[in-house]
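Our consortium's second objective concerns turning raw sequence data into structural hypotheses that experimental partners can test. To show how far this objective has progressed, the report includes one record in full. It was chosen at random from the queue rather than selected for favorable results. The single chain below, 236 residues long, was entered without modification.
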Amino acid sequence: PEEPKQAEQENWAAAPHIDKVTLQGSGQGSGVVVSGQAPPGARVILSNALGEAMAAGADSHGRFELPVGKEALGHILTPEIQIGQTPTPGPERLFLAGDGAIVAALLIDGGPSRRLTDGPALGVVDGDGRALLASGRAKPGQRVEVKSEGETAVAVADEAGLWTTPLSRVSDRAVQIEVGGERYAYPGPGPATGRAERAGQGWRVTRALSDAARQTSWFPDISGPATSPETSLTPH
């Protein structure tokens, strides 16, 4: 029984595990609090592409809470753990966007993004320039049908309620996707700026992973009155 624990601790040393992002204070214009798990006593750092960084220490139970000001919204943040002198970046990137209704997600190079804040039935669409991955949340064990361009892909939510499925017949371009009777218009990839932008009814970020590789992640809005003031700003 001791061995997995040791391996687990070695894995923890590689990256902070972010599990929650909540609004700081009330109302629009507030920042957020990023919380999660790290080795007890480790320093957790979130840095952006401009070299600006925020840090907090993990407590004796390994929990950390890191307040992030609203100026960080729209940027991709790199979570790192510092034990001793050297910070070690993890494999995930933290995406924060929005004003009032915040979208927070973990971006994974070449894999499905994981939305940390509430979302609609379709939580995120990831594209690599060729194919698409659709992901979302449902009740654990629930079967989810994802329809697009005449294809029906079926996913089953895991024990955490997360599901993901490739759309094998659909290339990475603007396309209609239907989940749970709701239709979503994925806008296709954008310029690879690594910054959040409004695209259709949602937030989009396109990142350059290398000279040749790009990844687009699009987070649909939760439909309802909360999104209506933003619709006039959406590009067509």
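The partners drew two points from this record. Residues 48 and 173 are 28 Å apart (CA to CA). Residues 1-12, 225-236 have pLDDT under 50 and may be disordered. Both points have been shared with the crystallography group to help prioritize constructs.
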